[in-house]
TrEMBL record, chain A:
Membrane topology: Multi-pass membrane protein
An example Gene Ontology biological process: aerobic electron transport chain
Keywords, sorted A to Z: Membrane, Transmembrane, Transmembrane helix
Organism of this sequence: Fodinibius roseus
Annotated protein name in UniProt: Cytochrome c oxidase subunit 3
Automatic annotation (TrEMBL), chain B:
PROSITE patterns: COX1, COX1_CUB
Record protein name field: Cytochrome c oxidase subunit 1
Upper lineage: Bacteria, Pseudomonadati, Balneolota, Balneolia, Balneolales
Enzyme class: translocase
Species this chain originates from: Fodinibius roseus
Gene Ontology molecular function: cytochrome-c oxidase activity; heme binding; metal ion binding
Length: 217, 577
């Protein structure tokens, strides 16, 4: 449970809530329910992954060697680190350390950007080799007729995840601006809390994607 | 309630009496077109949905009449085969995505869920407005794709046809994708609202069965719709980038599409029908003046339907080449759906037993629902058995089955709900005689349309065909005549309901004498629903208790969200607002 005040005259209390606690609980629950829908959204792709991996196990072993485990690993560390800093931002809010909220959000933002930059270089490198999804696939290096399907899945899943990171970056910028303006304190930090929940989900999805694509052996 | 109160907070409870025809209500507190477009009031959003779904119902209905008219003769009657394909696709897609899915939850649910919970609004009013605009945007994208090339895939978008055919399939699936998000956000909003926005004293066992049914529906919406969204996104990307997840020419698997599609679309039929079940429970208790029989059985059977509904999608795929073991399991699980549905039917019937029945038009629609939904449900059992299914697959028998469930069940329940809540939404009474006549016309027209389809389906008439052999002509012609009768019934309803807004008699706050909370507010309701926080002591179906115990409220300040209500502190002071 969060240690926030239940004062019924919070600055940000919306008209239809009885008190700030109800508003906070509702926002948090809404985000949890939304995250369930996100899991189902990715779930379709994970199901497709499972089906194709069961059918073509040797393809997945061969194709995953094309992926750069080092940079994938670096990205994993970067994202886990950003999950830590976003959690620290929430803790700072609970402790009413307004400056630390902004600092932690800033670090989260930077880490998210680093993730996307690394992802950009990984993708462009593959495009350079002719590894495109589906029918545009033009790489000779993997001797398997369905290699294009593996990379379709790779681009779809990491692409959808990347889209979520970009949305997260947008949210972090918004939070950073508001925290610099001093909107958040121990009385009110709902947006930080629920964006944090979202960010953890983005992190967890990557934690599944990384071994499923990079660490097949 | 127990008297050994440790965490019971005493709160002052007063009785408030609702006004009819108040000076200030939700329609005149904010005025102007801009106030409508930017409103976050759940009631106005509900009305906007109601207007939109009605519009699309008539558009889809016209498509249906065109299809039926074309089928008057075995060969071409008046439209080309290709146009015919596009028209039946649009009929299905519009009715499913733009009418059936949002009709009860987004229109009636939006209006009445917060009122039934004693809340001022849904948990996220702005998100609610966003849902509405996503729905409109998705609908516009769908219309643009119709104009810009058309879609002839059927509403199911089966690959590889949908990923290779011409026309505007890409924009169409994008439109449905956007509508899907509207549905997801409504589900998120409703679940949170039911959990967090209930008035003091409104425990889970006092929740109205309409709210329970919306809760079950929302669970399906949030769990199933994302899978449809990703599936349609894959179809779109397959057309744009050739990613080849579903197209066998690129190494993909078309049956995987069917699995994904029906993982959504089978639960989606429960998104459409379960809120209708909620309306049945409300109307039946109100017009038989009796406590609902088997409250928990009905509430939990909605959740059971939601749960089992996720495990039966393979019964759409008995002839797709899935493993025969899988088909057997899916067939067995399909039969299980009959159990909670049967529980509901029996409990509703038992509620009527020895009730003080008033045969008003909402109840008449519910009786129509009983007969037609029963036929729809039982033929569903027939279709769930594998051997019969192989024979009946993709025939008019299937068409008749799901129209009995969707039109005979869901549309009848929707109409019952509209008639039941019309006085609260508009403050006016409609012409009861016309309502009864229209109900009769629809019942007759519906049966004339769809009963012959069972016959021709079992004789082997395939669905969606443009041409047919002459022996089926008489069935097609009876069906077409029935569809015109049905159309007349719907136009008639539209006529007297719209007329009542202008010339109808003013309705009292509670014209049916219902015990449910939404009837204990003013007619029309105030902008924020309750001038005071209502305190709920009795359940919505407690017809054995006197009316004056039903709207208890406490002043705006000093109330407690999450506090237990202590009945002993009830102090009854009738007071006008």
């Amino acid at each position: 449970m969060a240690n926030h005040s239940t004062s019924s005259h919070s600055r940000y209390l919306q008209h239809h809530f009885v008190d700030a606690e109800q508003q906070f609980d509702a926002a948090k629950m809404g985000m949890w329910v939304f995250l369930v829908t996100e899991i189902l959204f990715f779930g379709g792709l994970f199901a497709a992954y499972i089906v194709y991996r069961l059918w073509y196990p040797e393809l997945f072993v061969m194709a995953s060697e094309e992926l750069n485990t080092l940079w994938g690993g670096v990205n994993t560390v970067v994202l886990i680190g950003s999950s830590l800093t976003v959690a620290m931002a929430i803790k700072s809010a609970q402790l009413n350390q307004k400056r630390n909220i902004a600092i932690n959000l800033g670090i989260t933002l930077a880490l998210a950007a680093i993730f996307m930059v690394i992802k950009y270089f990984e993708w462009t490198h593959k495009f350079h080799l002719g590894i495109f999804p589906g029918e545009f696939y033009a790489y000779e290096g993997i001797d398997h007729p369905k290699a294009n399907v593996f990379f379709s899945l790779y681009y779809l899943m990491t692409g959808l995840h990347g889209l979520h990171v970009i949305i997260g970056i947008g949210l972090m910028i918004w939070l950073l601006v508001r925290s610099v303006k001093g909107h958040f304190d121990s009385e009110y930090y709902t947006p930080v809390e629920i964006t944090g929940l979202y960010w953890h989900l983005v992190d967890i999805i990557w934690i599944f994607l990384f071994p499923l694509f990079y660490l097949i052996d | 309630m127990s008297t050994e109160e440790t965490n019971l907070k005493k709160i002052q409870v007063q009785r408030y009496e609702p006004e009819s025809d108040p000076d200030q209500h939700y329609l005149n507190e904010e005025t102007g077109i801009w106030a409508w477009l930017t409103t976050v009031d759940h009631k106005k959003i509900g009305l906007m949905y109601l207007a939109s779904v009605t519009f699309f119902f008539f558009v889809g209905g016209i498509m249906a009449l065109l299809v039926r008219t074309e089928l008057w003769t075995p060969a071409k009657t008046f439209i080309e085969a290709n146009t015919y394909n596009q028209i039946f696709t649009l009929h299905g897609a519009i009715m499913v995505f733009l009418f059936l899915v949002p009709s009860v939850p987004a229109a009636l649910g939006n209006f009445f869920l917060p009122l039934q919970l004693g809340a001022k609004d849904v948990a996220f009013p702005r998100l609610n407005l966003l849902s509405y605009y996503l729905y409109v945007a998705g609908a516009l994208i769908a219309i643009v794709s119709i104009v810009n090339g058309g879609i002839d895939t059927g509403w199911t978008f089966y690959t590889p046809y949908s990923s290779t055919t011409g026309g505007a399939v890409t924009t169409m699936v994008f439109g449905v994708f956007v509508i899907g998000f509207s549905s997801i956000l409504t589900g998120v909003n409703f679940i949170t609202t039911i959990h967090k926005m209930r008035a003091p004293g409104l425990s889970w066992d006092k929740l109205s069965l309409f709210s329970w049914s919306l809760y079950a529906t929302s669970i399906i919406q949030i769990l199933a719709t994302p899978v449809l969204a990703i599936t349609l996104a894959l179809v779109g990307l397959e057309r744009l980038l050739g990613i080849g997840i579903f197209d066998p020419a690129l190494g993909g698997d078309p049956v995987l599409f069917q699995h994904f599609f029906w993982f959504y679309s089978h639960p989606a039929v429960y998104i459409m029908i379960v809120p209708g079940f909620g309306i049945v429970s409300e109307v039946i208790t109100t017009f038989s003046k009796k406590h609902i029989f088997g409250y928990w059985a009905i509430a939990l059977s909605s959740l059971a339907i939601a749960f089992i509904g996720f495990l039966v999608w393979g019964h759409h795929m008995f002839v797709s080449g899935q493993a025969s073991l899988a088909s057997m399991v899916f067939s067995f699980l399909t039969f299980l759906v009959g159990i909670p549905t049967g529980i509901k039917m029996f409990n509703w019937t038992a509620t009527l037993y020895k009730g003080s029945i008033k045969l008003a038009s909402p109840l008449l629609y519910i009786f129509g629902f009983f007969f037609l939904f029963l036929v729809g449900g039982l033929t569903g059992i027939v279709l769930g058995s594998i051997a019969l299914n192989v024979h009946l697959h993709d025939t008019y028998y299937v068409v008749a089955h799901f129209h009995f469930v969707m039109v005979g069940g869901m549309v009848m329940a929707f109409l019952a709900g509209v008639h039941y809540w019309w006085p609260k939404m508009t403050g006016r009474l409609y012409n009861e005689t016309l309502a009864k006549i229209a109900c009769g016309i629809i019942f007759v027209g519906f049966n004339v349309t769809f009963l012959p389809q069972f016959v021709m389906g079992s004789l082997g008439m395939p669905r969606r065909y443009f041409n047919y052999i002459e022996q089926f002509q008489v069935y097609h012609q009876i069906s077409t005549i029935g569809s015109y009768i049905l159309g007349i019934g719907f136009v008639m309803i539209f006529y007297y309901l719209v007329k009542s807004i202008y010339t109808g008699e003013k309705a009292s706050p509670n014209p049916w004498g219902s015990r449910a909370l939404e009837w204990q507010v003013n007619s029309l309701p105030p902008l924020h629903n309750f001038h005071h926080t209502p305190v709920i002591i009795n359940g919505p179906y407690d017809y054995h208790k006197p009316m004056d115990e039903f709207q208890l409220g406490l002043a705006e300040s000093g109330n407690g969200h999450g506090t237990e209500v202590d009945v002993s502190s009830t102090e009854e002071k009738p007071q006008a607002e």
